[in-house]
Design goal:
The chain is an alpha/beta fold. The chain is 46% helix and 6% strand. Among the domains are: 209 residues, no CATH class; 147 residues, Hect, E3 ligase catalytic domains (Hect, E3 ligase catalytic domain fold); 107 residues, Hect, E3 ligase catalytic domain (Hect, E3 ligase catalytic fold, 2-Layer Sandwich). The chain is built from 27 helices and ten strands. The strands form four sheets. Strands 7-8-10-9 form a four-stranded mixed β-sheet, with helices on one face. Helix 3 runs parallel beside helix 6 and helix 6 packs parallel to helix 8. The N and C termini lie far apart (68 Å). The relative contact order is 0.07. The N terminus is likely disordered.
Length: 730
């Protein structure tokens, strides 16, 4: 492919790009804009549904302009007649390989890519049909794929002719409104595999710049057409754009590219085009590729806080920040932003406390710099509720926990244990706040009415404190909960505004109550007479403390029968009642509790799935990864005791592996950065081998006596990890 050719074969293409710039300058202000429109973060929730992450200002629609300002929409120009089929092309390639005569293939490539019209003539399914809907791009995808798959195996002069043709096309199509044929050409050119090579990046950048500068309506078409691309090729397109951004940020050979000051538009253009693919991906259920495939781990190594502050300060200007396109930022990078933002808030509040103390001429006390929580194990929930309610002004300070009557010094371990015990008690079925659904293995809010919802606020505050203090919790909420938690992501100033209300579907109900959701799904697909056979009305019944209560799903719902015509409305109202309305007060308290600690613009960067990972960590354990990252003190990894230990642990079932992790670290979940982020250490204990292993959860440290054989080690380890809570064996 291109890698085999000499680099200087493509060096002259810079001259073509210079010509592009010169022509653009000559045209003046009549051209379509090439500057990217940077989003207004204040309007982040008022986005068109197809482009949730393409955060940009709303442009004026051409339909709203006065008649005298409207430019005529150009007619589609007639296309040349090209009759070559996929088979004809494949035959030409095979003949060229056998004979060494590539003239026919060269002529095809140089003609096809010479202009946007020729691209359409070759790859449009029917040149006589307009194909001007979002549903069908009219592109012969099979032909495009065959032509591109063969391209990198052709001689260099053939590949060079394609790139020259692309430049010609970009020059010709620089002016005027875009036709659907232009959009088709852009869609096809984006798939060119030559753009994986850095020597073509100057051309690729100008292609991306033109696509990024298209109107909102044109982007709408590209988004919908892109969702029809096969998964493998869609992933290749995304990876190519991510690689382009990474290599522009950290070039292996800086001399390959123009100076950064002369091409500041490269990265914004590529990121905006990537946003179109992200929007296309989100339109499909399930998505074409995982949302994590849009992460660019290179961004983990830039100044993220500068990006974050630029976004906060200049969100409504033309200053680019990756935070405007959060889908590209990895969860690890977002965690860094949230942690540093939290630290800055903690420092600010602690400093203010110190200033207040000094201004009143009082002696400063180090405890004033922390959120100090003192609780009794026997009154864990009530003491915790009282402490957090009484110290609401200190919630953004660093958390320190003390168990009354115990000598433990909180270096992190006591905090972890407090979270674990409190969550375990609150979520116990007998406590009545949450209902555990066995079919889905998750908890959901109890709809029982009560006089005081402060305990739900406590649970929300606990989740906020966990994120704020980088603690992972073993909470099993469905994904819908985190979607509601970000509705809206910033607490509204108007207290009458509803919070925690989001669009819910039958799929959301399936994740919580699969049996009920299946029944409603059966109702939707029932082929008989729904009204006569089901005899239902727009009314639901719930049992509360042994009493059956009825609720209307709409006014006079008890008098409206469910029919074949209105059953979709019935199901939607039923799901909305269960997941929104029936638990509104409970969830609102939970929402305000979470945001009382975690209120930050950084939450705008997060997807619901990412909030879940930040709160709970990942339940997927990789003990081999833990083995690779473990540090040793007093032992070598080749010592017999250590080899026994890992033989035993790797052979444990999942429940015992989780108990070991909980015993040693205070949590059985894996943090965002994976096992390596645990900084797990095994230290040699000089005590008798009759003793059980000991853990220092604040340091993620396991103290292991030098047991003489594997059987003894396994027995003592299982006893230790299965019976540990508090300071000492219970």
């Amino acid at each position: 492919g291109l890698e085999r050719g000499a680099k200087n074969q493509f060096s002259t293409f810079s001259n073509f790009i210079t010509t592009i710039n010169q022509k653009k300058e000559g045209i003046g202000n009549r051209n379509s804009p090439t500057q990217l429109v940077i989003p207004n973060i204040k309007n982040v929730r008022d986005l068109p549904p197809i482009c949730l992450d393409v955060r940009q200002k709303q442009r004026i629609s051409i339909d709203t302009l006065p008649q005298e300002l409207k430019a005529p929409i150009p007619p589609e120009p007639s296309l040349p007649i090209r009759t070559k089929t996929v088979k004809d092309f494949q035959d030409d390639v095979e003949k060229a390989k056998l004979s060494g005569d590539w003239k026919a293939v060269h002529d095809f490539y140089s003609t096809t890519f010479d202009s946007f019209l020729e691209i359409n003539a070759a790859f449009k399914k029917d040149t006589n049909s307009p194909f001007n809907t979002i549903e069908d791009s009219g592109i012969n995808a099979k032909f495009v794929n065959v032509v591109y798959d063969a391209l990198l195996n052709t001689p260099q002069d053939v590949q060079k002719s394609v790139l020259k043709g692309v430049i010609n096309g970009l020059l010709q199509e620089w002016k005027g409104p875009r036709t659907k044929d232009d959009l088709r050409a852009y869609c096809i050119l984006l798939q060119n595999p030559q753009f994986s090579n850095t020597s073509t990046y100057v051309i690729y950048a100008h292609l991306l710049r033109q696509i990024a500068a298209l109107t909102e309506a044109d982007h709408h078409f590209l988004v919908h057409w892109s969702k029809k691309i096969s998964q493998r090729r869609f992933k290749q397109l995304v990876d190519r754009l991510l690689q382009f951004i990474s290599l522009r940020l950290f070039p292996a050979k800086p001399e390959e590219f123009p100076p950064m000051v002369k091409c500041t538009w490269w990265i914004p253009s590529a990121t905006k085009v990537l946003a179109l693919f992200n929007a296309a991906n989100s339109l499909i259920s399930p998505p074409i590729i995982a949302y994590t495939d849009f992460y660019n781990s290179t961004l983990d190594h830039i100044d993220l806080m500068e990006e974050y502050h630029n976004w906060q300060c200049y969100g409504n200007s033309h200053r680019f920040s990756f935070c405007q396109y959060p889908f590209i930022i990895s969860i690890a990078a977002k965690k860094v932003i949230i942690q540093r933002d939290s630290e800055q808030q903690m420092i600010s509040i602690a400093r203010q406390s110190l200033v207040d103390k000094v201004s009143r001429r009082q002696k400063p006390d180090m405890n004033m710099l922390f959120l100090n929580v003192k609780v009794r194990r026997t009154h864990l929930v009530s003491d915790s509720l009282d402490e957090l309610a009484r110290k609401r002004a200190d919630l953004k300070k660093k958390l320190k926990v003390t168990f009354v009557g115990e000598a433990g010094l909180d270096m992190g371990g006591l905090t972890k244990e407090w979270f674990l015990l409190l969550i375990r008690q609150i979520f116990h079925p007998d406590y009545g706040m949450f209902t555990y659904h066995k079919d889905s293995h998750c908890h959901w809010f109890s709809s029982f009415k009560c006089d005081n919802y402060s305990e739900f606020r406590l649970v929300g505050a606990l989740m906020g404190l966990a994120v704020y203090n980088s603690i992972t919790l073993d909470i099993r909420f469905p994904p819908c909960c985190y979607k509601k938690l970000l509705s809206p992501p910033i607490v509204p100033c108007d207290h009458n505004t509803l919070v925690g209300i989001c669009d819910v579907t039958l799929d959301d109900l399936f994740q919580i109550m699969p049996e009920l959701a299946h029944g409603l799904s059966e109702l939707l697909s029932y082929e008989g007479n729904v009204e006569e056979d089901f005899y239902s009305t727009f009314q639901v019944f719930q049992e509360e403390f042994g009493v059956i209560k009825s609720y209307n799903l709409k006014p006079n719902g008890d008098k409206i029968p469910v029919t074949n015509q209105n059953r979709k409305e019935y199901v939607q109202l039923y799901v909305d009642f269960l997941l929104n309305k029936s638990i509104y007060k409970q969830f609102a308290a939970f929402y305000y509790g979470f945001h009382s600690v975690c209120a930050s613009y950084a939450l705008l960067l997060l997807r619901p799935e990412e909030v879940e990972i930040l709160v709970c960590g990942s339940p997927e354990l990789d003990m081999s990864a833990l083995q690779r990252s473990t540090q040793y003190e007093g032992y070598q990894k080749t010592d017999l005791t250590i080899r026994y230990f890992w033989d035993v642990v790797l052979g444990f079932p999942l429940d015992l592996q989780k108990k070991l992790l909980h015993f040693a670290t205070g949590s059985d979940r894996v943090p965002v950065g994976g096992m390596a982020d645990l900084n797990f250490k095994i230290s040699k204990s000089e005590t008798s081998t009759n003793w059980l292993p000991v853990a220092h959860t604040c340091f993620n440290q396991l103290c292991l006596p030098p047991y003489k054989n594997k059987k003894e080690l396994k027995q003592k380890l299982i006893i230790g990890i299965s019976n540990a809570e508090g300071f000492g064996l219970e």
